[in-house]
Give the backbone structure.
Amino acid sequence: MALNELKTMETYEIFWTGGFDSTLRVVQLSRYPICIQPVYCTGVASDIRKSEFYELRAIKQITELLRKKPETKAKILPLKIVSSSEVLKEKQDSDFIYEELPHNHQVAQAFRRIYISMMTPRRKQLATGRGVLNAVNVDLYIDSQYQWLAAYSNSRKKPVEVGITARYVNKFLDAIGGGNAVEEINNGYFKQYVINKEKCKSEDGYTIFGNFAFSFYNAPLKPELIKEYKRLNCEDIMDLTWFCYDPIDGKPCGQCWTCVHTYRDGITNRFTPEALERYHKREKELSNQQ
């Protein structure tokens, strides 16, 4: 691709974890003559997940495969990893580019207030028998990653896409009084959904979610998204995605919240027999807590 041609292509940023949903959105975007800037946001050292190695490996593999597909029209730029300064000191992979996470006190305070407001009325639902957070009920509260995503997206000139499905989008928007504030925009290539600031009832909510573009707002759940992978002839890419937060011996554990939701959504062929055993044990524990 010629340099002058690249300069005329519009760049779209998207948060990408190598997971099922965000990867599908990257695949969809790859069909347009645009530049895709994928962003992987890890925040601070205490927020680093055990799955990071596997997520970044999946992104590498998927990017390489996607670039080779004849249907790909987009220019996929190197992954941008956004972290705090102490985390960046440890990063040395030449395949990626690195950027320090912007410090945003307003975002940090808004996130804290939203987190408390969502957690307080749901403590019983979120607590396990051991009195610790039941992460399988993750759709009842806002995860810490959104503080880092918001800090980054608020530093950009236009919204950054976040590939989460309606189950999470609607929970978050209902919590911040923004359910009726979502509006559809069409940039000439595809539709995006953003929050209208004037219609959003929560200033804190807009601070966190106001500079996101929701690619899958009102989208179906996993079974329909699987059909979309097949329609796009990208089942091979779908099989490279990573979803487990707490891998065991390099394989999905079967018992973390992402594994549980993945299995519940009908994606059962990605688990080893050992992981399936842990999954069923976890589901039994959850049913006993109700």
Observations:
- Residues 192 and 242 are 25 Å apart (CA to CA).
